Each structure stands twice: as structure tokens, then as C-alpha cells.
């Protein structure tokens, strides 16, 4: 019962509210292109027409579009929190922006999320094509973190010393507590990434599955250390923590990717509406026509 209480106490340190806030934080993504055709291609890539209409409209509001040679580019750059440029725009001097080619976007998406890690959840939440890249990054980083924790906590078991004994009776003796907490945090982050509710109640099925499976991974890792000599056992324990977290992460990812509210009919065409500050913003044709009619 003590292990269960310790696990729950450590898991409770995960703060769903902060994770949800990070996914909802406001930001502006600047899209720099050589012409309007490239602007529309970038907007359609980031906010596909298959998105639910309300979510797509919210995603489009996060974008600001400016031509590479526009006089308002410098001001738009200062307003933006992150920036993407097409290869043609980069050739015109926009080498400060992340280059993203819609014909082969994965490398650009990875660089965008790497450079702006503090916006990873928010970018993924609003732009579905970025979610797979963001999810893989979250899963990989959590697996690496858990592998490091497992390696450190295996040292007292592999090399008995007075320091190791003192370490073993402390919190680090139950490394499954830390591994479990990291996996629960991953569950919350993936939920936020896919726009799902981020709370203990909403994610309770996943959390209970993680906590239940943690003791199985722990038993397997302890067996590896006991049966395999010295440093080989330590490496095995670290590998089990790494592989186990990858397995849990991929299961969580599949769980969050279940379709939700996608539209099956073609959406309205994205058009560019000129803004007073000298750029363009993407708008749907129907909404733009309604705005013009009302004015």
C-alpha cells in the first residue's frame, strides 16, 4: 500500500491546469511567402478544410500573412511569436524564419517545434498537421527522461555502497513513482495537443491504465537487474523504462487520435483579406462575403 500511496502522491504533482493553459496560450504565427498563391497553400496546409469549421476559424485567426518584399514585414515580424517562410521567401532574405515547403513539410514542422518548444502544445492544438510531429517529440523526450531515471535509480542495486543504501531507502528507491508521473504528464500533454479535456476526471481511464501497468514494468526491470550481471543489468533496466514509455506513449497517442467532429464535405475556399497594416489574413470566402455585405 505504501508504494501505491507514493505513486499517487507523485502523480498528483502533475498540474493539468498548467498543461491546459500552455495549450491555450495566445500566439501569432507569421507566414511569409513570395506571392499570394504560396500564402494560400501554407494556410490550407496548417488549417485543412477537413477541420471542424469553428476550430478552423480559430486556427486561421492565429495566422498573419505578409509578402517577403512587403513594407510591413518588419512590423509583422515584431508582432509574431513564430514565423514560417516558403523556400522562395527565404531566397528573398527571410532567412530568420523557419523554412517550410508544403510539398515536403515534415522537416520544416520539426524545426518550427524545436525552435519554439514553449509553443509546442499551442501550435499542435491549433494546427492538426503539426500534431504527429509534436506527439512524437513528446513521447520520445518522455521515454529518454524515464530511461535516465531508471539508470540512476539502478545504481544502488548494481553497485552496493553506504550511499547506495541510503539512496535506496529514500524516494528514489521506487523509481516507478517517477516513471509513472512522467507518463501521466505525457497523457495530459497529448490530450491538450489534440484539443481534448485536460483534467483528472477526463483522463482517468488512461491514468488508471498507466498506474496499473507501472507495477508490471517495475517487476520486469527489477528482474533484469537481478538476473543480468552488473552494468548489463543497469542497461537492461534503462532499456525497459525507455521501451515501456514508448509503448505507453504510442497507446496514448492512438487513443487521442480518434476522429472527433471532422467534416466530410469540402470546406469553403480560403481567400486573403488585405489588412490596414500592410499584410493579409486568411479568411473563408463565405465569411468574407458576409462581412462585406454587412458593411
Structural class: alpha/beta
So how many helices?
14
Measured as a percent range, the helix fraction is: 55-70%
How many domains comprise the coordinates? 2
Structure report:
This protein has 14 helices and 6 strands. By secondary structure, it is an alpha/beta fold. It has 2 domains: 2-21 and 132-256, no CATH class; 28-80 and 82-115 and 265-294, no CATH class. The strands form 2 sheets. The chain has a 4-stranded parallel β-sheet, sandwiched between helices. A two-stranded antiparallel ribbon has the order 5-6. α6 (87-91) links the parallel β3 and β4. The longest helix is centred in the middle third of the chain and has 28 residues, at 131-158. The chain is elongated and about 55 Å long. The protein starts with a helix and ends with a helix.
Quick overview of this protein structure:
By secondary structure, the protein is α/β, with parallel strands linked by helices. Helix content is 62%, strand content 9%. Helix 11 (175-193) runs antiparallel to helix 12.
Question: How is the topology of this model organized?
Answer:
Layout: H1 2-11, H2 16-24, E1 29-33, H3 36-46, H4 53-61, E2 63-67, H5 73-79, E3 82-85, H6 87-91, E4 98-99, H7 106-115, H8 120-126, H9 131-158, H10 162-168, H11 175-193, H12 204-227, H13 230-256, E5 270-274, E6 280-284, H14 285-294
What key phrases describe this protein's structure?
295 residues, 2 domains, two-stranded antiparallel sheet, 6 strands, 9% strand
Amino acid at each position: 500500500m505504501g508504494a501505491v500511496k507514493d505513486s499517487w502522491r507523485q502523480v498528483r504533482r502533475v498540474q493539468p491546469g498548467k498543461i491546459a493553459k500552455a495549450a491555450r496560450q495566445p500566439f501569432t504565427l507569421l507566414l511569409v511567402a513570395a506571392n499570394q498563391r504560396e500564402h494560400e497553400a501554407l494556410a490550407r496546409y496548417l488549417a485543412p478544410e477537413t477541420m471542424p469549421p469553428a476550430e478552423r476559424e480559430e486556427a486561421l485567426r492565429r495566422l498573419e500573412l505578409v509578402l517577403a518584399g512587403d513594407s510591413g514585414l518588419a512590423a509583422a515580424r515584431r508582432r509574431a511569436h513564430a514565423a514560417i517562410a516558403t523556400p522562395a521567401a527565404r531566397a528573398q532574405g527571410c532567412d530568420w524564419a523557419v523554412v517550410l515547403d508544403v510539398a515536403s513539410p515534415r522537416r520544416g514542422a520539426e524545426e518550427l517545434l524545436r525552435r519554439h518548444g514553449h509553443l509546442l502544445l499551442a501550435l499542435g492544438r491549433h494546427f492538426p498537421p503539426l500534431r504527429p510531429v509534436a506527439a512524437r517529440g513528446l513521447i520520445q523526450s518522455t521515454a529518454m527522461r524515464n530511461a535516465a531515471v531508471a539508470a540512476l535509480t539502478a545504481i544502488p542495486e548494481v553497485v552496493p555502497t553506504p550511499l547506495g543504501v541510503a539512496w535506496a531507502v529514500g524516494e528514489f528507491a521506487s523509481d516507478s513513482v517517477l516513471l509513472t508521473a512522467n507518463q501521466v504528464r505525457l497523457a495530459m500533454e497529448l490530450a491538450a495537443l489534440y484539443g481534448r479535456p485536460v483534467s483528472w476526471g477526463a483522463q482517468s481511464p488512461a491514468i488508471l491504465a498507466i498506474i496499473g501497468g507501472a507495477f508490471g514494468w517495475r517487476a520486469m526491470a527489477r528482474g533484469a537487474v537481478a538476473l543480468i550481471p552488473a552494468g548489463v543489468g543497469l542497461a537492461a533496466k534503462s532499456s525497459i523504462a525507455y521501451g515501456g514509455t514508448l509503448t505507453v506513449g504510442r497507446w496514448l497517442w492512438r487513443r487521442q487520435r480518434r476522429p472527433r467532429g471532422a467534416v466530410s464535405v469540402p470546406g469553403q475556399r480560403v481567400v486573403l483579406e488585405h489588412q490596414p497594416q500592410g499584410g493579409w489574413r486568411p479568411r473563408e470566402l463565405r465569411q468574407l462575403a458576409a462581412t462585406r455585405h454587412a458593411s
